[in-house]
Amino acid sequence: MRKIILSTLLFLPFLGFSGGFQLNVQGIKAIAMGGAFTGVSSDASSVFFNPGGMSNLKGKHNFILGFNVIDPYVSLQTDVTANIDQTSGKSTPFHFYYVGELNDKVRLGFLVNNQFGSSSSFEDDWQGRFVVQNISLKSFMFQPTLSYKIHEKVTIGAGFVYTMGTFSFEKGVPLSSATTTEGKGSLSGKGDGTSYNIGIFSNLFSLKHDSATTDFSVGVNYRSGIRVDLPDGEAEFTDIPVSLQEKFPATTAFSGTLNLPSVFTIGVSAKHNRSNYSLTFAYDFNYTAWSSYDTLAFNYVNEDTPDTKVAKNWQNTTTHRFGVDFTYKNKYSARIGMYIDQTPILDGYLSPELPGMDQIAYTGGLGYKVSDKVSIDFSYIRLSGEREASLDDAGFSAKYKKAVNVYGLGLNIQLGGKKKEAVSVIN
Amino acid sequence: MKKTLYLVIAFAAISCTKTQFDEFEVDAGSANFTNYIAVGNSLTQGIQDAGLHNEYGQQDNSYPAILARQMKLSTPGMNFVQPTVTGDGSGYKHLEWINGELEVTDVPADASWSSYGDQSIKYNNLGISGIRLTDCVPGTALFSSSINQVICSQNPNGAFLDFGTVLTNEISYLDHIEASNATFFTNWLGNNDVLGWATNGGDDGVVNTGLSAPFPATLAVTEMTDPGVFREKYDAILDAFQIMGAKGVCATIPDVTSIPFFTTVTIEAVGDDIWIEEGPYSSNPGNVRLATANDLLTLYASTDLGDGIGFVQSNPIPHSNVLDQDEVALSQARVVLLNNEIKASALAHGYAVADMYTYMTELKSGLTFDGVDYDARFIEGGGFSLDGIHPNTNGYAIIANKFIEVINQAYGSSIRPVSTSSYRGIVFP
């Protein structure tokens, strides 16, 4: 434990820390362990974290249903305004995972979750309303998955991902008339895209001591990037002076594209089993290809409306995740973790709706196995940070303070498994 | 012990969601804003759309008024009074939507305009549209103070100040400054010592005085001011403020040729050959020739072109509506010379300088504040009003922020800038 903390500190100087709009809340157990789960894969969330890890699951049918409440607090200070609070409300992403056993070698899986999302809003008259008033991005992923045990210790898995995305954006239009002080533009669109999720998992080896075993595992996962086209977006302009309504009509169609990044992960874990407890250490390394989010562009069908093109210029990021699970009598679990997250957003590109910053997040959680079939888990993430940066294209700069609490609750159901199989016998 | 624990828990719980920033502390620093006096010309008076009007708070948002409101946050006791117009003021230009076209049309002067201002009130904003620095301070030339008296007292925008009577009781603009008891000042005089000449197409604007000899029969009311004379008069104004113990900021003169008044009507925009007449200061006075991209046509030339003037050699655009390339060079050079005098005089008196010359050049190539883009294009550029010379309210807010930046730097004060996007730009129909 102490060693892990030390190695964490060693990493610090070399890292920035993440953000973007990836939702790192895809499994309650995983969240509590800092999101380090690719090399653990001990529940049905493997279908997301590493399809290769699905072979670890014992029951005939494994279900997970989980949801999170993300409770963000973001405040800004500009030269002009002492304090501006984002008015963004809580968001509640959820996940559903299923892994079922077809035969000794093959398992089937399915997931529905929200892997990317972000939503921010500000008071109507806020200083930066010509930069952004409200923005919301939601994604729903559906993923049928198959895993195959190619070797006693090695399983590969692959899933096909279908993504549905919705996007809405609202900002002020700086045109005034005798009766209005400014107009407003509202964009909304939806679209879909496809991608894949592949992984390989290996129970490398076990060390046996007197009355204990220690299992070492490794997993590698790659989720490909997703291009979500928004072909039939609708733009609405309101409170536009009559003389400029050709340029900003009441409604016009627009098209655009959102490029969601690929994520590569390598994860390792060590699980120490004794007769009445187990202790698991896990580490994940993520490489997220945020450079896919280079430009956000919208082309309006109405020719007179000037097209929107926002340079994002996001950078690829790395994340280090650390987690520990302590389980007593295979019934009570306590988990802690952390992750060191790098922001993809360079100085000069920091937009007020998404003030990403390098950060360290701390996580924790509890699990309780109600019966052989049912267990419930609770997780918590705490992250906070400060940053001062500008959005040069918009002539906007601010200091930001952010604090986010994320509360998660999950239900884990296992049906048709062999009874009372000790976890320590996994290999 | 337990108490401490509770405190720690309570603190931790609060700190979980406490992201708010504290209120600003606004301080005057070493400046004293109790009696802020603004001196200058139309830019200071708050002219927009070729007039002094207040339909949507245009005059209420002159840059000195914006500055004063921000100063007041540090100095609650201060008062700042402007000679505010009523109704349509001096008259102005506005936009109308006529048969699917945007047109600039005139709103006539308000009936109250003939009795503008109250000479018994001591105003804080002494800006007078059209005034040159040279008109403000009596010089050494014969009848200099009388000439100033005549020019100032005949300017309707200056009716809120008493300039006395010619020859018997002449009160100069400098006299008003000396009587102002300013504790702080902004001085943005000097533009019209070039600008009037330039907007008249390089013309001295000679008018008859109607007075008999030995008083001059004519006056050149838009003649460019000689740099030496300019320096003497600028020094006189800063001397006056220095004697009062006032602190303040001087501002340089923007390049007069970068404003939309000169950059909107171009050969390219017209798409045809245009004949122009060269002015009296050009290399070939009276010469009629084809305009090149180096000649600047004024906004008034668009009226000529609309009337069919300028398309044949026999009917050129009159010289007063063209700043030809020689005149461009003359006015640009004069601005640089006068700015050197402004900077030297301010330095000698220990006053800060807001370099509006440089700032307005930056604006020409485009500035963005809070997601709103500004440049120096007519109407579309966002920062200038419908006369193509003066900023709109948005533009004045940008200027006020520049002054605030310089004041804070020079006097260690912490006046907050304003949110420029919360001010109106052009009012569209």
CATH class of chain A, anyone?
Answer: Mainly Beta
Mean pLDDT score of chain A? 90
**Total E-strand runs of chain B:** 17
Overall helicity of chain B: 25-40%
The largest beta-sheet of chain A arranges its strands as 1-3-4-6-7-9-10-13-14-17-18-19-20-21
Helix content of chain A: under 10%
Quaternary state reads heterodimer
Q: Which structural class do the helices and strands of chain A define?
A: mainly beta
Number of helices of chain B: 14
Structure description:
The complex is a heterodimer of chains A (427) and B (429). Chain A has 427 residues and is mostly beta strands. Chain A starts with a helix and ends in a 12-residue tail after the last strand. Chain A has helices at residues 2-11, 28-32, 46-49; strands at 61-77, 84-85, 94-101, 106-113, 117-121, 134-151, 154-173, 176-177, 183-208, 213-223, 226-238, 251-260, 263-273, 277-288, 295-300, 308-311, 317-328, 332-341, 359-369, 374-391, 396-415. Chain A has one domain (2-425): Outer membrane protein transport protein (OMPP1/FadL/TodX) (Porin, Beta Barrel), CATH 2.40.160.60. In chain A, a hairpin with a 3-residue loop joins β13 (263-273) and β14 (277-288). Chain A has a 14-stranded antiparallel β-barrel. Chain A contains three helices and 21 strands. Chain B is an alpha/beta fold and 429 residues long. Chain B has one domain: 3-Layer(aba) Sandwich (Rossmann fold). Helix content of chain B is 34%, strand content 14%. Chain B is built from 14 helices and 17 strands. Chain B has helices spanning 2-17, 42-45, 63-72, 133-136, 144-153, 173-178, 192-199, 227-244, 260-263, 267-270, 301-306, 325-349, 356-365, 393-411, and strands at 36-40, 92-98, 101-107, 164-165, 169-170, 184-188, 206-208, 218-220, 247-251, 275-277, 288-290, 296-297, 322-323, 352-354, 367-369, 372-374, 427-428. In chain B, the strands form seven sheets. Chain B has a four-stranded parallel β-sheet, sandwiched between helices. Chain B has a two-stranded antiparallel sheet with strand order 2-3. In chain B, strands 4-5 form a two-stranded antiparallel sheet. In chain B, α3 crosses α14. The radius of gyration of chain B is 24 Å and the shape is globular. The N and C termini of chain B lie far apart (70 Å). The mean pLDDT of chain B is 93. Chain A binds chain B through residues 71, 73-77, 79-83, 85, 125, 127-132, 171-172, 174-178, 181, 241-244, 382, 384, 393-396, 399, 401-403, 405, and chain B through 15-24, 56, 95, 97, 102, 367-372, 382, 416-419, 421-422, 424-429.
